[in-house]
Write a structure and sequence with these properties.
This protein has 289 residues and is mainly α. The protein folds into two domains: 125 residues, no CATH class; 99 residues, no CATH class. The chain is 56% helix and 2% strand. The chain has ten helices and two strands, in the order αααααααββααα. It has a two-stranded antiparallel ribbon with strand order 1-2. α7 runs antiparallel to α10.
Protein backbone atom coordinates (compact mmCIF):
# COMPACT_ATOMS: atom_id res chain seq x y z
CA UNK A 1 0.00 0.00 0.00
CA UNK A 2 3.04 2.28 0.03
CA UNK A 3 2.52 3.39 -3.55
CA UNK A 4 -1.24 4.16 -3.27
CA UNK A 5 -0.81 7.74 -1.90
CA UNK A 6 1.86 8.39 -4.51
CA UNK A 7 -0.45 7.30 -7.31
CA UNK A 8 -3.33 9.39 -5.95
CA UNK A 9 -1.28 12.58 -5.70
CA UNK A 10 0.37 12.13 -9.08
CA UNK A 11 -2.91 11.28 -10.87
CA UNK A 12 -4.57 14.33 -9.32
CA UNK A 13 -1.83 16.55 -10.73
CA UNK A 14 -2.17 14.91 -14.14
CA UNK A 15 -5.94 15.49 -14.07
CA UNK A 16 -5.53 19.20 -13.39
CA UNK A 17 -2.99 19.60 -16.20
CA UNK A 18 -5.14 17.66 -18.68
CA UNK A 19 -8.23 19.73 -17.85
CA UNK A 20 -6.31 22.98 -18.32
CA UNK A 21 -4.94 21.89 -21.71
CA UNK A 22 -8.39 20.79 -22.92
CA UNK A 23 -9.97 24.10 -21.90
CA UNK A 24 -7.26 26.08 -23.69
CA UNK A 25 -7.68 24.06 -26.86
CA UNK A 26 -11.49 24.52 -26.70
CA UNK A 27 -11.20 28.30 -26.30
CA UNK A 28 -8.66 28.52 -29.13
CA UNK A 29 -10.89 26.85 -31.72
CA UNK A 30 -13.98 28.91 -30.99
CA UNK A 31 -12.15 32.20 -30.41
CA UNK A 32 -10.44 32.25 -33.78
CA UNK A 33 -13.03 30.38 -35.77
CA UNK A 34 -12.31 27.87 -38.51
CA UNK A 35 -12.93 30.36 -41.33
CA UNK A 36 -10.26 32.77 -40.12
CA UNK A 37 -7.87 29.90 -39.49
CA UNK A 38 -8.27 28.51 -43.01
CA UNK A 39 -7.89 31.97 -44.55
CA UNK A 40 -4.66 32.63 -42.70
CA UNK A 41 -3.25 29.21 -43.54
CA UNK A 42 -3.90 29.78 -47.26
CA UNK A 43 -2.04 33.07 -47.08
CA UNK A 44 0.90 31.56 -45.23
CA UNK A 45 1.14 28.44 -47.38
CA UNK A 46 2.60 30.24 -50.42
CA UNK A 47 5.15 32.09 -48.27
CA UNK A 48 6.38 29.40 -45.94
CA UNK A 49 8.97 28.12 -48.42
CA UNK A 50 10.71 31.48 -48.55
CA UNK A 51 10.03 33.24 -45.25
CA UNK A 52 9.99 32.40 -41.56
CA UNK A 53 6.32 31.84 -40.72
CA UNK A 54 5.11 32.38 -37.16
CA UNK A 55 2.35 30.19 -35.77
CA UNK A 56 -1.13 31.54 -35.09
CA UNK A 57 -1.75 33.31 -31.83
CA UNK A 58 -4.77 33.90 -29.63
CA UNK A 59 -4.13 36.86 -27.37
CA UNK A 60 -6.86 35.84 -24.94
CA UNK A 61 -4.86 32.75 -23.98
CA UNK A 62 -1.53 34.49 -23.42
CA UNK A 63 0.46 34.06 -20.25
CA UNK A 64 2.84 36.73 -19.04
CA UNK A 65 6.23 36.12 -20.62
CA UNK A 66 5.01 33.03 -22.48
CA UNK A 67 2.97 34.53 -25.32
CA UNK A 68 3.86 34.68 -29.01
CA UNK A 69 4.68 38.36 -28.92
CA UNK A 70 7.35 37.70 -26.30
CA UNK A 71 8.74 34.34 -27.37
CA UNK A 72 7.87 34.10 -31.07
CA UNK A 73 5.95 30.87 -30.44
CA UNK A 74 2.29 30.20 -29.65
CA UNK A 75 1.22 28.05 -26.71
CA UNK A 76 0.74 24.88 -28.77
CA UNK A 77 4.40 25.02 -29.84
CA UNK A 78 5.21 23.26 -26.57
CA UNK A 79 8.48 23.94 -24.78
CA UNK A 80 9.64 26.29 -27.54
CA UNK A 81 7.82 29.14 -25.80
CA UNK A 82 10.10 28.58 -22.79
CA UNK A 83 13.29 28.85 -24.82
CA UNK A 84 14.49 31.91 -22.89
CA UNK A 85 13.03 30.88 -19.51
CA UNK A 86 15.56 28.40 -18.18
CA UNK A 87 13.69 27.84 -14.91
CA UNK A 88 10.37 27.07 -16.58
CA UNK A 89 12.08 24.91 -19.19
CA UNK A 90 13.71 22.93 -16.39
CA UNK A 91 10.29 22.42 -14.83
CA UNK A 92 8.88 21.14 -18.12
CA UNK A 93 11.73 18.66 -18.54
CA UNK A 94 11.54 17.41 -14.95
CA UNK A 95 7.76 16.99 -15.17
CA UNK A 96 8.16 15.13 -18.46
CA UNK A 97 10.66 12.79 -16.83
CA UNK A 98 8.18 12.27 -14.00
CA UNK A 99 5.47 11.23 -16.45
CA UNK A 100 7.77 8.72 -18.10
CA UNK A 101 8.93 7.24 -14.79
CA UNK A 102 5.33 7.10 -13.53
CA UNK A 103 4.25 5.13 -16.60
CA UNK A 104 7.14 2.71 -16.14
CA UNK A 105 6.36 2.13 -12.47
CA UNK A 106 2.60 1.80 -12.91
CA UNK A 107 2.88 -0.50 -15.93
CA UNK A 108 5.53 -2.54 -14.15
CA UNK A 109 3.25 -3.18 -11.17
CA UNK A 110 0.30 -3.90 -13.46
CA UNK A 111 2.27 -6.54 -15.33
CA UNK A 112 3.59 -8.06 -12.11
CA UNK A 113 0.02 -8.40 -10.83
CA UNK A 114 -1.03 -10.21 -14.03
CA UNK A 115 2.15 -12.21 -14.59
CA UNK A 116 1.72 -15.95 -15.15
CA UNK A 117 5.02 -17.78 -14.45
CA UNK A 118 3.93 -20.82 -16.45
CA UNK A 119 3.73 -18.84 -19.70
CA UNK A 120 6.74 -17.36 -21.53
CA UNK A 121 7.05 -13.61 -21.33
CA UNK A 122 6.71 -13.12 -25.07
CA UNK A 123 3.27 -14.78 -24.99
CA UNK A 124 2.08 -12.34 -22.32
CA UNK A 125 2.94 -9.21 -24.29
CA UNK A 126 5.43 -7.99 -21.69
CA UNK A 127 7.73 -5.09 -22.59
CA UNK A 128 9.20 -4.09 -19.21
CA UNK A 129 9.70 -7.28 -17.21
CA UNK A 130 11.94 -8.87 -19.88
CA UNK A 131 14.42 -6.01 -19.48
CA UNK A 132 14.55 -6.59 -15.73
CA UNK A 133 14.97 -10.31 -16.33
CA UNK A 134 17.94 -9.73 -18.65
CA UNK A 135 19.68 -8.00 -15.74
CA UNK A 136 19.50 -11.26 -13.82
CA UNK A 137 16.78 -10.31 -11.33
CA UNK A 138 14.30 -13.00 -10.45
CA UNK A 139 15.60 -15.45 -13.04
CA UNK A 140 16.89 -18.96 -12.39
CA UNK A 141 18.47 -21.71 -14.50
CA UNK A 142 16.92 -22.22 -17.90
CA UNK A 143 15.50 -18.71 -17.93
CA UNK A 144 12.69 -19.56 -15.50
CA UNK A 145 11.29 -16.66 -13.49
CA UNK A 146 11.44 -17.85 -9.89
CA UNK A 147 10.83 -14.57 -8.02
CA UNK A 148 8.78 -11.52 -9.05
CA UNK A 149 9.52 -9.51 -5.90
CA UNK A 150 12.46 -7.63 -7.54
CA UNK A 151 10.04 -6.52 -10.27
CA UNK A 152 7.60 -5.27 -7.62
CA UNK A 153 10.36 -3.33 -5.86
CA UNK A 154 11.40 -1.78 -9.17
CA UNK A 155 7.85 -0.62 -9.84
CA UNK A 156 7.45 0.92 -6.37
CA UNK A 157 10.79 2.74 -6.63
CA UNK A 158 9.77 4.15 -10.00
CA UNK A 159 6.47 5.41 -8.57
CA UNK A 160 8.20 7.10 -5.65
CA UNK A 161 10.74 8.64 -8.03
CA UNK A 162 7.95 9.86 -10.30
CA UNK A 163 6.32 11.66 -7.36
CA UNK A 164 9.58 13.44 -6.54
CA UNK A 165 10.10 14.39 -10.18
CA UNK A 166 6.46 15.43 -10.56
CA UNK A 167 6.48 17.76 -7.58
CA UNK A 168 9.86 19.12 -8.67
CA UNK A 169 8.48 19.83 -12.13
CA UNK A 170 5.40 21.56 -10.73
CA UNK A 171 7.55 23.67 -8.41
CA UNK A 172 9.89 24.87 -11.15
CA UNK A 173 7.01 25.42 -13.58
CA UNK A 174 4.76 27.38 -11.21
CA UNK A 175 6.69 28.57 -8.14
CA UNK A 176 10.40 28.59 -8.94
CA UNK A 177 12.32 31.42 -10.62
CA UNK A 178 11.62 31.87 -14.33
CA UNK A 179 15.32 32.04 -15.10
CA UNK A 180 18.18 30.32 -13.30
CA UNK A 181 20.97 32.69 -14.26
CA UNK A 182 20.49 34.97 -11.24
CA UNK A 183 19.62 32.46 -8.50
CA UNK A 184 21.63 29.43 -9.66
CA UNK A 185 24.35 30.57 -12.08
CA UNK A 186 25.78 27.07 -12.50
CA UNK A 187 22.49 25.78 -13.87
CA UNK A 188 21.67 28.91 -15.85
CA UNK A 189 22.59 29.33 -19.49
CA UNK A 190 22.37 31.59 -22.51
CA UNK A 191 21.88 29.91 -25.87
CA UNK A 192 24.44 32.16 -27.54
CA UNK A 193 27.11 31.27 -24.97
CA UNK A 194 29.12 28.67 -26.84
CA UNK A 195 31.19 27.61 -23.84
CA UNK A 196 28.08 27.01 -21.74
CA UNK A 197 26.44 24.95 -24.48
CA UNK A 198 29.58 22.82 -24.81
CA UNK A 199 29.66 22.38 -21.03
CA UNK A 200 26.06 21.16 -21.00
CA UNK A 201 26.81 18.74 -23.84
CA UNK A 202 29.88 17.49 -21.98
CA UNK A 203 27.89 16.85 -18.80
CA UNK A 204 25.34 14.82 -20.75
CA UNK A 205 28.07 12.74 -22.37
CA UNK A 206 29.68 12.05 -19.00
CA UNK A 207 26.34 10.91 -17.57
CA UNK A 208 25.84 8.59 -20.55
CA UNK A 209 29.30 7.16 -19.97
CA UNK A 210 28.56 6.58 -16.30
CA UNK A 211 25.36 4.79 -17.31
CA UNK A 212 27.35 2.47 -19.56
CA UNK A 213 29.76 1.63 -16.76
CA UNK A 214 26.87 0.92 -14.38
CA UNK A 215 25.97 -2.04 -16.58
CA UNK A 216 29.61 -3.12 -16.64
CA UNK A 217 29.79 -3.04 -12.82
CA UNK A 218 26.50 -4.95 -12.58
CA UNK A 219 27.92 -7.68 -14.79
CA UNK A 220 31.29 -7.88 -13.03
CA UNK A 221 30.44 -7.42 -9.36
CA UNK A 222 26.70 -7.45 -8.69
CA UNK A 223 25.29 -10.81 -9.70
CA UNK A 224 25.87 -10.79 -13.43
CA UNK A 225 23.22 -10.81 -16.15
CA UNK A 226 21.11 -13.41 -17.91
CA UNK A 227 22.93 -15.14 -20.75
CA UNK A 228 20.64 -16.73 -23.33
CA UNK A 229 23.61 -18.61 -24.82
CA UNK A 230 24.59 -20.30 -21.54
CA UNK A 231 24.36 -24.12 -21.43
CA UNK A 232 21.05 -25.60 -20.35
CA UNK A 233 18.81 -23.04 -22.02
CA UNK A 234 20.34 -19.92 -20.50
CA UNK A 235 21.40 -18.84 -17.02
CA UNK A 236 22.54 -15.86 -14.97
CA UNK A 237 26.30 -15.52 -14.86
CA UNK A 238 29.05 -13.00 -14.23
CA UNK A 239 31.19 -11.91 -17.17
CA UNK A 240 34.87 -11.91 -16.25
CA UNK A 241 36.66 -12.12 -19.62
CA UNK A 242 35.56 -8.96 -21.40
CA UNK A 243 36.31 -8.40 -25.08
CA UNK A 244 38.31 -5.17 -25.24
CA UNK A 245 40.02 -5.67 -28.59
CA UNK A 246 39.18 -2.65 -30.78
CA UNK A 247 39.40 -4.76 -33.93
CA UNK A 248 36.59 -6.99 -32.66
CA UNK A 249 34.42 -4.29 -31.10
CA UNK A 250 34.63 -1.79 -33.95
CA UNK A 251 34.68 -4.59 -36.49
CA UNK A 252 30.93 -4.91 -36.01
CA UNK A 253 30.51 -1.42 -37.43
CA UNK A 254 32.31 -2.45 -40.61
CA UNK A 255 30.05 -5.40 -41.29
CA UNK A 256 27.36 -5.12 -43.90
CA UNK A 257 23.81 -4.57 -42.57
CA UNK A 258 22.53 -6.73 -45.43
CA UNK A 259 22.79 -10.45 -45.97
CA UNK A 260 24.28 -12.78 -43.40
CA UNK A 261 26.81 -10.45 -41.76
CA UNK A 262 24.20 -8.59 -39.74
CA UNK A 263 26.17 -5.44 -38.82
CA UNK A 264 26.09 -4.75 -35.05
CA UNK A 265 23.11 -7.05 -34.42
CA UNK A 266 25.30 -10.03 -35.30
CA UNK A 267 26.88 -10.01 -31.83
CA UNK A 268 26.25 -13.35 -30.16
CA UNK A 269 28.09 -13.30 -26.83
CA UNK A 270 27.97 -11.13 -23.72
CA UNK A 271 31.73 -10.67 -23.61
CA UNK A 272 31.52 -8.55 -26.76
CA UNK A 273 28.42 -6.69 -25.55
CA UNK A 274 29.90 -5.72 -22.18
CA UNK A 275 33.27 -4.96 -23.76
CA UNK A 276 31.47 -2.62 -26.15
CA UNK A 277 29.92 -0.84 -23.17
CA UNK A 278 33.41 -0.32 -21.73
CA UNK A 279 34.49 1.31 -24.96
CA UNK A 280 31.28 3.32 -25.25
CA UNK A 281 31.47 4.54 -21.66
CA UNK A 282 35.13 5.50 -22.01
CA UNK A 283 34.53 7.42 -25.24
CA UNK A 284 31.54 9.29 -23.79
CA UNK A 285 33.38 10.27 -20.61
CA UNK A 286 36.53 11.36 -22.47
CA UNK A 287 34.48 13.37 -24.96
CA UNK A 288 32.51 14.93 -22.13
CA UNK A 289 35.66 15.98 -20.33
Amino acid sequence: MLFVPVISLWMSALGVVSLALNLRAYDFVFALGWQLKISLMKTLYSLRRFYHVETLFNGTLALAGCDQETTGFAWWAGNAQLINLSGKLLGAHVAHAGLIVFWVGAMNLFKVAHFVPENPMYKQGLILLPHLATLGWGVGPGGEVIDTFPYFVSGVLHLISSAVLGFGGIYHALLGPETLEESFPFFGYVWKDRNKMITILGIHLILLGIGSFLLVFKVLYFGGVYDTWAPGGGDVRKITNLTLSPSIIFGYLLKSPFGGEGWIVSVDDLEDIIGGHVWLGSICILDGI
